[in-house]
Structures are given as C-alpha cells and as structure tokens.
Amino acid sequence: MPFRGAFTYNDVMNMPDAQSVKSIRDYQKKVDIHSVMNIQFTSGTTGFPKAIPRTHFQTVNNSYFVGKRMMLNEKHHIFCWQVPNFHAFGLIVGTAGWHNGSTIVYPSIHYSPEKSLESINKERCTTLLGTPTMYVDLIREQSTRNEDISPDFALTGGAIASPQLVKDMQSVLNVKTVQSLYGLTESLAAFFSLPGESPSEVYTTVGHIVEHTEAKVVDSNKKTVDFGVPGELCLKGAAILDGYLGDDKKNEESFDEEGWFYTGDQFVMFENGYGNIVGRIKDMIIRGGENIYPKEIEDFLRSHPNILEVHVVGIPHKRLGEEVCACIETKDGSTISTEEVKIFCDKKLAYFKIPTMVRTMKDFPKTTSGKIQKYKLVEQVVREMNNNIV
C-alpha cells in the first residue's frame, strides 16, 4: 500500500492477509499476560537510566484507567502528541488513546513547538499531551503567533508543573481544562486528575490516586506520617514495577519487606485522596543546615512577569555546604540580575531560600523525553565558576 501520510482504521485492519491474522491469533493464545511486553528506561535526569521490564497486564490495565480519567470513552478526541512513545508517559496515555479510538497527531519526528502549534491549529486538536517544559515552549510560540486554538484539555506530566504554568496554559493556549498526571517509569500513572476538579485541586495537586494503587507517605524512619505532612511517597499496586532489570542493589534499596516501592519523591497526601509533590529528595538543597526544596522557589519565581522558565539547583559551597542558584530563561531574552531576583523574593520567601546566584539561560539540558537534567545544570554552573565566568 503506498504511503499517503495517514491511515484509517480500516486501512490498518485490511493490511494483513488471512494467514497473518491466523498467525497472530495463534500466538495470542501462547502469550502470558504477566510476561514482559517491553523494557522501559528511566529518563536519567539524575544519572544513568535504569531498565524496567513492563508486562502486558501492567500496561494495558493502567492505560485503561487513565483513559477513563480522561473521559476518552465519552467522545472522539484528537491528540497533539508531543511526547515520545518510548517514554512511559507516551506509552500509557498512548495506549489509552488507542483503547478508545482517538485520533493521534504526530506533529514532527523530533519535538518541535513550531510544528506542534501548527498541528494544533491545522488538525483542530482537542487534546494536548506534553511535559511542563514542552508547554513552556508552546506558550512562548503561541505568544508570538497568536493562533486560533481552543483545545478541550491539556494533560501535563513527566515532571512538576507550577500553578503559574497551569494558568498560562489556560490563558495563552486557551485550554479549557488542564489535567495533571503523577507517575514514574517505575509506577506508571499513580495519581491523575478527576473529571470536574475545582481550580484549587488543579493548581495545588498532581491529581487523585488511581484505581488499584496504594500510597503512603513515610518519614526518615519509614513511619507513616499524618495527612498533610510531607515525607517520602511509597507505592504498591498492579502497575508498580516488579524490579529493576539486573540491579539487585537498587532493588534492595527501593523495596521494603512488605513490597512497598520507595519513590524518592517528597510528597504530601491529603485525606480526600489527592496528593502533591514537594520535590525530589535528591534535589533537596541543604544550605547552612536548612532543608530547601527547589519547587517552592521555582513556583514563586515563575510568577515574575519576565520569567518564562526557572530551575533551582544547589551549588557546592565551602562554608554553607550548598548555595541556592536560580537558572532562569526570560520571556524577552534579556539578562536578569541576582539583585533583581533578591528584591523580588524579599519578604516573600524565607531569607535562606532566596537565591544568591542567578544564571540567565537560553536553553536547558534535557533528556530525549523533554525532562530537565538538573545534575547537568549543576555541572554547567560549577564549570563556569571555575572558569571565572560570572
């Protein structure tokens, strides 16, 4: 069949001949639902990616419940697909789309905000899918082009989205509803927005715990904390990984004797089943004995009228242990000074959380799935300091 740029459902169904269909059906009878269907790799935002075998059962069931949360079964949707299918985010939501017969639009071979915005407009996409960084890029592009778009909803996941970013998605991209997804390659979708959420639940949480998943939050002694108290998120359930491939040491570190998986995320659980990320435990900055989570500072700085994107990291310091550094991309491309950031934060953030170093960035180091690699940011800033670049 000659390539026409798009295939209908009937095109795909008519591709195999009778013998091919018989072979597939024969093989289906031999497939164990708990056998491995693919191997997912973590994004490598903090170091070398880890391999996670995924079974048919885990993938199909998790994506089924994601589709229900997105109400994909209630009407036909047209997705603007910005995330790669090799990533767990794309795999699970993609399978949810296929479950429900949605139209999937791939704007480009590699991620391109220009091509994405063009596709949203041309194909009249009703649903957007992307990481927070991708939405930052889309917002920048739409602010310039002002295309006539009005998607029904946008799903953000793969990293933490700030309340300001959600508001910008609604105002600049003209998205009617924003939904949040929290999950890891290790857990697939663990928290997901519910239909009809209040604005406060959209802005301040990562969604409601999904079906067939258990969650608890523990302190440093692995004791469960009260609702509303931050601690490390632990997960158990049908979609949680069975273990890292060929990494016994990491498996021992990540699971306890009851089978709980320790995510490494500092998290708050609420009594109504919603939750929110405080930050990655590994990203925590310890400055002069004070524990600082970058997300709080990032969320606040994104409310600055000329800050488009910001990522806060800890830079080694001889006396304090670590110093707070804000890496910032401005909306107009100008340089923002440390003094301007300090004045903006004064009396609004605790003094020890106010960045004492600011770097203006043109772009950020990212993984192939669009996540920011903070350890590379640290390396870059340290390298500049060693070369006396200020």
Automatic annotation (TrEMBL):
Name all AMP-dependent synthetase/ligase domain ranges.
Answer: 26-245
Record domain AMP-binding enzyme C-terminal: where? 296-371
Q: What does this protein do?
A: Acyl-CoA synthases catalyze the initial reaction in fatty acid metabolism, by forming a thioester with CoA. Has some preference toward medium-chain substrates. Plays a role in adipocyte differentiation.
Q: What is an example of a GO molecular function annotated in this UniProt entry? A: medium-chain fatty acid-CoA ligase activity
Superkingdom, according to UniProt?
Eukaryota
Q: Which family does it belong to?
A: Belongs to the ATP-dependent AMP-binding enzyme family.
Name of the protein in its database record: Medium-chain acyl-CoA ligase ACSF2, mitochondrial
Organism encoding this protein: Acanthoscelides obtectus (Bean weevil)
First-tier enzyme category under EC: ligase
Q: Does the keyword 4Fe-4S apply?
A: no
Q: Which GO terms describe its biological process?
A: fatty acid metabolic process
Which keywords does UniProt give here? Ligase
Family matches, as Pfam families: AMP-binding, AMP-binding_C
- Name the SUPFAM superfamilies on file: Acetyl-CoA synthetase-like
The UniProt entry, under InterPro entries, shows: AMP-bd_C (IPR025110), AMP-bd_C_sf (IPR045851), AMP-binding_CS (IPR020845), AMP-dep_synth/lig_dom (IPR000873)
**Reaction catalyzed:** octanoate + ATP + CoA = octanoyl-CoA + AMP + diphosphate; a medium-chain fatty acid + ATP + CoA = a medium-chain fatty acyl-CoA + AMP + diphosphate
State its Enzyme Commission number(s).
6.2.1.2
